[in-house]
């Protein structure tokens, strides 16, 4: 692949037991394979640090996490089955999302990352699927983590559907929380059979912001949709990088139709 690789920032995780920042290898490997240059963003929730790091980026990937977004951030009290909350993870991701919004940076959000994106836009979350929605299908599949375990239905007017070869695809699943109410400037574009949101997109012109609830970084080597997701994201980052003036610029890589969508369908 010729040309300069776009720089893709990826926020890290925090291991509480050892006080280490870390990140599973698969996110960076998928970005590199698609033509990007992964850049790890430490969980230091200081606006000047985040702004300085983002200055040199052409796109942002918000990865999954073994933590839950603090429900106080979307106006809810903690459910008894709420998982571990890592304030520095929440604060860093939200600061990064602020910079993404200001700069119109291409954004790809995965699992926890999609939930953080939704909360940053004023949306809310279901804090524990098994206890709050007992009739839901199983969304925590366990090992092997790359095995597709359930189907999702795609909205045929969304950008995501343009990357898939069928309206229904199989994905892996590793989450106990889900989107409840979709945030502003986002639309839901994929659902499971139980009605839970599996993907969101920003429909505004000149924006590339796509969130998925599953983990395309796992097993992407053998999954055409996962490959298409990373390739489209890197293409948007390259387009962003090619514009000399970073102030107020965006990308035309996603142009979804104007439509009304609710959190469930």
Would you kindly provide a written description of the structure presented here, covering whatever features stand out?
Mean pLDDT is 92; it is low at 255-265. The protein has 265 residues and is α/β, with parallel strands linked by helices. α2 packs across α3 (87-103) and α3 crosses α4 (112-120). The chain has a single domain (7-241), classed as Class I glutamine amidotransferase (GATase) domain (Rossmann fold). The strands form 3 sheets. It has a 9-stranded mixed beta sheet with strand order 4-1-5-6-13-12-11-8-9, with helices on both faces. Strands 2-3 form a two-stranded antiparallel ribbon. The longest helix is centred in the C-terminal third of the chain and has 18 residues, at 224-241. It has helices at residues 25-33, 47-54, 87-103, 112-120, 129-132, 159-163, 224-241, and strands at 7-11, 13-15, 20-22, 37-41, 59-62, 107-110, 124-126, 150-154, 168-171, 178-181, 187-191, 197-201, 209-212. Helix content is 26%, strand content 20%. It contains 7 helices and 13 strands. α3 links the parallel β5 and β6 (107-110).
Quick structural overview:
The protein is an alpha/beta fold and 265 residues long.
Provide the spatial order of strands within the biggest beta sheet: 4-1-5-6-13-12-11-8-9
> Which residues form runs of ≥5 with pLDDT under 50?
255-265
What is the number of strand segments?
13
**What proportion strand?**
15-25%
Q: How many DSSP helices? A: 7
- Helix % is 25-40%
The CATH superfamily appears as Class I glutamine amidotransferase (GATase) domain
What is the 3D shape?
globular
Provide the CATH architecture. 3-Layer(aba) Sandwich
How many strands, what sense, and barrel or not for the largest sheet?
9 strands, mixed
Mean pLDDT equals 92
User: What class, by secondary structure content?
Assistant: alpha/beta
> Briefly, what CATH class?
Alpha Beta
CATH topology: the name is Rossmann fold
The topology string of helices and strands comes to EEEHEHEHEHEHEHEEEEEH
What separation lies between the terminal Cα atoms?
40 Å
Write down the domain tally.
Answer: 1
Work out the radius of gyration.
17 Å
